[in-house]
Structures are given as C-alpha cells and as structure tokens.
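Weekly sync, protein design subgroup
Attendees: M.S., D.O., the rotation student, P.L. (late)

Item 1: inverse folding check
M.S. brought a backbone from last month's batch and wanted to see whether the design step gives back something sensible before we order anything. D.O. pointed out we never logged the input encoding, so this time it goes straight into the notes. Structure tokens as presented (460 positions):
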C-alpha cells in the first residue's frame, strides 16, 4: 500500500495549517479536564457517580485504546490538554505565534542520560501499581491529574520545549509504542529537499510557528514513536514539504531502525500490566482485588513485589530465554561469548513482536472493562459532582452492561489477531537476520503462551 498524503486534501490542509481548530479542541478538552479535577476534589466519593473517574478512566480510556491509538496513533498527544497551560506560559501566547517564536523558559537541555523512555516506563509502573486506588477514588484521581499538569508547567519553564511529553509522560510512552501500528504517519515528502534546506524551520521555528515541541527533526522520522503529531512542523515548513499520510498499518514495525532496551521494556511492561489489570479489575479473585486496593498493607506489599518482579524480571527473562533459543536454532551461537551490545540488539529487535501482542491485550481488556462500566457515563454527565443535578435528563438512567453476549468472542478475535501479527513479525525478523523460519519458534511459543494466558483470564 503506497502512502497517501491525506493532508493534501484542500479542506483538511486549511484546517491543519490554521492554528484555531486545534487550539479550540485543546481548550475544550482542557475544560473537561478541569471539571474532572474539580469533581475529584469537590464531588461525590462514589467512583461510579463521579465525573472524574467515569470520564477519565472509562470514556477517555475507551476512546484511547479502542479507536484513537489503533487508528490515529499519536492524535491524542496533538490535542492533549495536560501540557497546554505550561506551553501557553512558555510561548506567552494562547494561539498566534508571539515574540518571533522565542520561548519563555530557562532553556535547559534535558540530561543526556535520560533522553530515552526509561522515566516514562517507571512513571507508568508507578501509576499502574496504585491503579486500583486511582481508578476508584476520585480524590486520588484528581491529585494525579493535577500533579501531571504541575509537572508539565514546571518542566516547560525550566527545559526547552515539551520535555514533559517527550521524556516523562507515562501516557505518552505507551501511545508512542502502539502508534507504530496506526495507519497514520507524519513524514516529509522529499528527504532531499530537507537535506538541502539550511534554515530547517520545521525544527527551529519561524514567524508561522514554533520549532518541533518534541525535539524531533521531521526529515529523519522513520517511526511514530517520538512524533507527537502536533503538526507544528506542517505549519512552519516554508517549503511545504511535510504531510500526514495514510499508510499500511504497522509500517514502523517492518522499517529498519535502531531499537533500544527502553522501548523493549515498554513492551514488556504494557503486556504484563494488561494481564495484571485484567486479573485485578475484571477477574473473579476478590482477594487479589482487595490486596491491590489497600496500599502499604502487608497483602499489598506482596502484590507490589509480585507486580514489579513480573514486569521487570520474570517476563523479560522468559523472553530473553526465547531469544537465546532462537539464536541457537538459527546457528547464531558458535560457543564464543556474544558481545553485550549485540545481545541487547537482538533482544530489542525481537521485542517488536510485543507491540501487536500488547495492543491486542489492552483492547481485549478495554472491551470488557469499558462495556461493563460505560453506562455510568450518562448519569455522571448530568450530575458530574453527584450533587443531585440533572443537566441533560440522564441522571436517573440505570447501570446497564453493554454487548455482554459478544464481548468474549470479540476478545478471542482480537487476541488471535495480535498473536498472528506477532508471529509474522517474528518470522520476518528471523528472515532479516538470515536465519531459518524454525528459529522463530521460541519467540512464537512465548507469544502463544502469553495469548493463552490472557484467554484463560478473560474466559475464566
């Protein structure tokens, strides 16, 4: 499938070039975000009646995992309200470029050793470890959301551009990972034009806009992982050489590029957390749910220890073992020690199979979790604080699980699709390494066991 530049459609191009449509959407979402925080602090403590809980962890999560990430990739990052206040302060402007594109910040560069997604990985683990409390306690949800905003403001005033989004945001980390599957990409039209263009306004900025907030040069983009799809480069490119393309889904996963251990571990963390979330939040084990929801008690310490070991040690070690067996089957092991950097490269290369596998796991979890709880959205929309309002006449609508009869079938189809995609990637990786198809068998076995485990959770 040849990429098609959808941003060249006249009406869409005008919308993308203009700053107003995007700003209005960000401002609208910021309004919802503020209401969610206020509901957490001032509203009912009943999670299933509180706007903050329902619209962040049910409605927003459903849109993100079932539509935005699989179909539109990084689109959410382009309209996310969390960095908006800090970015407006940094730019000293709400909409139009001001001060010649100069930013109001100390301009500190992010520490070189932390220019990766390790902090995002740790941030996601931290949120996931306390997720049972965060997802059920409005006050805690409000604290977490407000904390994200304050950290984003602080980093905007100290560091250059969107340091929070690029290096810290735990949500941005997993969106970046799974955006590799999306059939949407932002790329330059002609790399030669970029190479000969001295000013590089897409990166440095111009009178039409700001330099790439994500510190990415569009001319070098080969993956969606680190492009926030904010379209700032599309607005500032003086040669009209940037476009948004419709492409083959998963193209990034078959494009040769360097992959690091931080990205590999993001794959492990996301896959493992999907399984743990499923067991805790929709599984039949009340003891597990009680332990996860009682922070710093003895049962919770046991849960936390198991949680961290599974994410950081057990699952990566199992995959590492599968990679070692793959190399032996393929004749890659000769008895001589393999250099550490080469072993890590092999490990990271094969770890891309975790992308479709993990996304399928999250979609399967979301199908069950969201459809069971989505009907809570209607009462909380009319009565966001639980104060007895009925703004839209939906406050009295009862809880009703949706699509309960077909969800297991949908989960099976999604998980098997993810497995098939992962196996295809494993076979392709083996072929690219000059190894026989049989060498992909251990990786395939790992993926199959993970899928069977998830199926057992959902069908228990």
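Designed sequence read out in the meeting:
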């Amino acid at each position: 499938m040849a990429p098609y530049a959808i941003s060249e459609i006249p009406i869409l191009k005008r919308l993308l070039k203009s700053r107003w449509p995007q700003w209005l959407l960000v401002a609208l979402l910021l309004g919802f975000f503020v209401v969610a925080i206020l509901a957490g602090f001032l509203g009912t403590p009943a999670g299933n009646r509180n706007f903050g809980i329902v619209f962040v962890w049910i409605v927003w999560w459903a849109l993100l995992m079932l539509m935005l990430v699989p179909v539109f990739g990084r689109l959410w990052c382009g309209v996310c309200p969390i960095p908006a206040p800090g970015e407006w302060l940094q730019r000293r402007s709400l909409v139009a470029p001001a001060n010649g594109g100069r930013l109001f910040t100390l301009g500190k560069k992010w520490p070189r050793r932390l220019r990766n997604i390790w902090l995002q990985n740790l941030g996601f683990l931290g949120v996931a470890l306390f997720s049972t409390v965060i997802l059920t306690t409005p006050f805690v949800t409000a604290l977490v959301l407000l904390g994200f905003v304050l950290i984003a403001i602080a980093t905007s005033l100290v560091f250059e551009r969107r340091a929070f989004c690029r290096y810290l945001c735990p949500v941005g980390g997993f969106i970046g990972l799974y955006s590799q599957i999306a059939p949407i990409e932002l790329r330059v039209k002609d790399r030669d034009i970029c190479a000969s263009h001295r000013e590089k306004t897409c990166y440095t900025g111009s009178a039409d806009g700001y330099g790439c907030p994500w510190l990415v040069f569009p001319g070098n983009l080969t993956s969606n992982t680190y492009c926030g799809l904010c379209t700032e480069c599309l607005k500032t490119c003086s040669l009209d050489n940037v476009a948004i393309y419709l492409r083959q889904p998963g193209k990034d996963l078959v494009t040769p590029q360097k992959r690091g251990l931080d990205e590999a571990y993001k794959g492990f963390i996301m896959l493992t957390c999907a399984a743990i979330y499923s067991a805790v939040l929709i599984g039949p084990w009340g003891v597990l749910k009680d332990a996860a929801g009682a922070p710093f008690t003895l049962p919770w310490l046991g849960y936390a220890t198991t949680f961290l070991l599974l994410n950081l040690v057990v699952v990566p070690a199992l995959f590492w073992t599968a990679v070692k067996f793959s190399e032996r089957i393929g004749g890659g092991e000769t008895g001589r020690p393999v250099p550490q950097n080469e072993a890590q490269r092999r490990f990271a290369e094969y770890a891309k199979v975790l992308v479709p596998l993990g996304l399928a796991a999250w979609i399967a979890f979301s199908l069950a979790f969201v459809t069971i709880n989505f009907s809570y959205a209607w009462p909380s929309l009319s009565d966001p604080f639980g104060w007895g309002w009925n703004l839209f006449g939906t406050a009295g609508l009862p809880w009703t699980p949706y699509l309960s009869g077909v969800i297991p079938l949908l989960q099976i189809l999604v998980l098997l699709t993810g497995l098939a995609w992962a196996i295809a990637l494993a076979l392709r990786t083996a072929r690219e390494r000059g190894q026989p198809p049989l060498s992909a068998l251990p990786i395939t076995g790992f993926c199959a066991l993970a899928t069977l485990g998830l199926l057992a959770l959902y069908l228990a």
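Discussion: The chain has 21 helices and five strands. The beta strands are 4-5, 184-188, 205-206, 209-210, 242-246.
Action: P.L. to compare against the previous round before Friday.
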